Each structure stands twice: as C-alpha cells, then as structure tokens.
Amino acid sequence: MEYGILSIVPTIVAVGLALTTKNVYVSLLLGLFIGNVIIFDGNILSGVDGIIKSVETVFADGSNLTTMLAISLMGGMILLIQKAGGVNGFIDFLTVRTSLIKSKKSANFITWLIGIIVFVSANMSSLIAGSIMKPVNDKYLTSPEKQAFIVHTVSAPVCALIPLSSWGAYMISVLENSGVEGAAGVMIKSIPLSFYVVIAVAIVPILILTGFDFGPMKKAELRVIEEDRLAKASGIYEKGEDEKTTTCLLLILPVAAMIAVTIIGMYITGGGNILNGAGMRSFLWGVLSGIAIAFVMILGKKVMTFKEASSALYEGWVGMLPIIIILTFALGLGDLVSTLGTGEYLANAFSGILSPALLPVIAFIIALIISFSTGSSWGTMAVVLPLVMPMAFTMGTSIPLLAGAVWSGGLFGDQSSPISDTTVVACSATKCGIAEHIRSQLPYTLSVALISAGMYIVVGFIM
C-alpha cells in the first residue's frame, strides 16, 4: 500500500518535537503512534497496539539486541575503570606525565584522532573516542555538545572514507545491485568525490585549532565556562575523596584488548575477510574481553574487591538504560518509516526534476532528505542509488561522482538525524542530550551540506 505524503508525517512530528521540546522520549513515542495510526487507517487503538508491535520488532532483530548489549556493557566497563582509578590515571598520563595534552585544543584534537583510528565501526568509534576522552575534555571545559559533534563527525563518515570494514562491502554491493560494472573500482574513485564526507571530517580539526564556534555550539561552550566559574566560586568544585587515581594501564590495556578482539572477530565472522565481518557482534566480543582484562587487573592489584567491581559494572550497565530506551524507539521509528515507504516516496517526488549536469546535486539532496527523515544512511543508499544510476547510464553522468553524491547525502542524515542510531550512541558516549546535540550541530552540518551542494553543481558541469 502507498501512503503518499502521509509517509513523512511521523518523521516530521518526531524531529520537530525533539528539537522544540527537547523531550526525545515523547517525541519518538508520538512519532511511533502517528505512524501506526496511519498504517491502521486512522484506528487509534490499533495505533497504540502498533507501538508495542514496533518495539517487539526491534527486539526480534538479533543485531539490535547485540548493539544494545554492547552499548550497555561498554557503559559498565567505563564506569568500572573510572571507579578503579584508571580514568584519572589516564588523565594524569596525558596531561602531566607526558604532557601530550596541555590544552582544550589538544584534548579535542586527540579525540578527533582516536575517532579516525577506530574506523572499523561507526558506533565503536563514537563509544571509544567519546567515553575514554570525556574526562579529559571535561577537564578542559569542552561542552558535551562539542564532544558529541567531534566524535559523531568521525564515526560513520570515516567508515565511508576508509571503507576497510562492512561499510566497504555494503557500498560495493549497492553499486553492483544498481547495475554498476567494476563496482569496487568505482567505490574507490567515489571516495574523494564524497564532498560532504571529506569536508565534514576535515573541518573538525580546523574548528578545533582556530577555536571558532558559532550558534548554539558557542552558547554551549560559554555555558560550560560559566558553570565552571560558578562552581569554583561556590567551593563545590573539589574532587570527591572517593575518586581513585591508579595506573593509566588500567584503561589502556582493556581498551587495547577490546579493539584487538573486535578486529579479530570481524576477520573470523567475515570468513577471513574483514570487509564481510559482523561489526557489532565483534565489538561485543571486544567489550567482554575488555571487561575481563579490567577485572583481572583490578583484582590482581587489589584496587577493588570482586563485589565492588561487580557493583560498578552493574551500575554502569543500568546507567545506559535511558539510552537503550531512546535507541529502541528510534529503531522502531526507522522500521516504521521503511514500512510507510518514506524513502521511496521522497525519491519518486524528486525524480522528475533530474537533468544530466544537475543529476549529482539532485541525488545528493534526495539522499540528504531521505537520510534525515529515516536516520539510515545504508537504507538511503539502497533506495537512491538504484533510482539514479539508470539515469546516469543514459545521460552519461560520471558514475563515481554520482555515487559520491549519494554516499554524502546518506551520511548527512546519519550524522544529523535525531533518530539515527549513531546519534544516540554518540550522545551516550559523551553524556549529551540528543536534542541539544542536534540543535548545536545542525548549523555546522547544514553549512557543510550547502558547500557540498555547490561543489556538486560545479563538478557536475565539468565531469
């Protein structure tokens, strides 16, 4: 059944309310309700029951459960290491013993760099870079909004720029399904032509080193400085007596084990090819390995008792429950949007205004709108590329340029949509509210999108 323009209503309601009310729970829940009412022809009772079915659908997907379990255990591991003194030891190592980080700029830059290094999984990148660097960034008064922006920008976009993971395999498969010959070669050629992705990743260190902020992000940065000033003036700024400081290895070794086991897991699950590996399942293995290493070190050094360590792990795990609820609603809304055919409706609505030179920029805009509406970059790629590629074959448009435009549009939504799973994960790692993250980040992502659109117009006439 085709739902036409009604298919975009749940997303508009959810995103609009989230940005205006800052209540993400109610916004997503209302989006789910309206979407189900539309599916059940206006039946309100069926719409309520549909919310339950949407949640059941999310939990019926094994990959969703794996993601939730990995995120929860990661939260537990970080709190365990923090209470054992490993986080303070890591801060001391970076800021005092090695002087690797001496300022806010260097703390932000190292966060950006870690996100790039961990390129095998978007969510893994955000969780690692955001979680282990948050205490350091907090020390140098970086707002949660700025931290979320940094780690989110180098999560999925970097996976697309360095496609040596399931991202590369997926991009190749979408190209092949769209009738592109020599898909692997086209994918490689399309990477530098993914203008939004390249600019978004490159602009972060420029903003960091220049200290340039604007809009809600600037207000957030000034807010943190003012809160710090007031805290110091009131005398409530002192470190708690129960905060330990131990060796930095208590953080470094578990995280290193987690990364190593994740990569090995992707090699194993991919049948010897890391490109085909199961990213989140491998990451779950990695997190469990990191927890095991942390427990061995903590108990071996008698930093905590087994009961204390277990309680810390459990506390961190339970502390991630609000994020898991948001992720559940977001994934449910994503499935609902797919059922309503939102992506197909938007793609068909724009398909009549395509022309050879403007095909790349129109494809970019279509992908941008769909990805923001659905929160899925992969889903957007699967919808848009098969639509525009046959036109490119007929019109003679550059295939790598068109592919780069679709990747770029898809990743805009992955980074900018409040219902994207990477948005939820980036916010959980940096303890930033989702509405606050989106509001402060949108001026940046929209600016990059505008520049990218201009480049696709110019290059579209040249290539």
Automatic annotation (TrEMBL):
The keyword Cytoplasm does not apply. It holds the Pfam family Na_H_antiporter. It is a multi-pass membrane protein. Residues 158-461 form the Na+/H+ antiporter NhaC-like C-terminal domain. InterPro entries: Na/H_Antiport_NhaC-like_C (IPR018461). It is found in: Cell membrane. GO terms for cellular component: plasma membrane. Keywords: Cell membrane, Membrane, Transmembrane, Transmembrane helix. It comes from the Bacteria. Its main location: membrane. The chain crosses the membrane at residues 24-46, 58-81, 109-129, 149-173, 193-214, 248-270, 282-300, 312-333, 345-370, 382-407, 444-462. PANTHER family: NA+/H+ ANTIPORTER-RELATED, NA+_H+ ANTIPORTER NHAC-LIKE C-TERMINAL DOMAIN-CONTAINING PROTEIN. This is Na+/H+ antiporter NhaC-like C-terminal domain-containing protein.
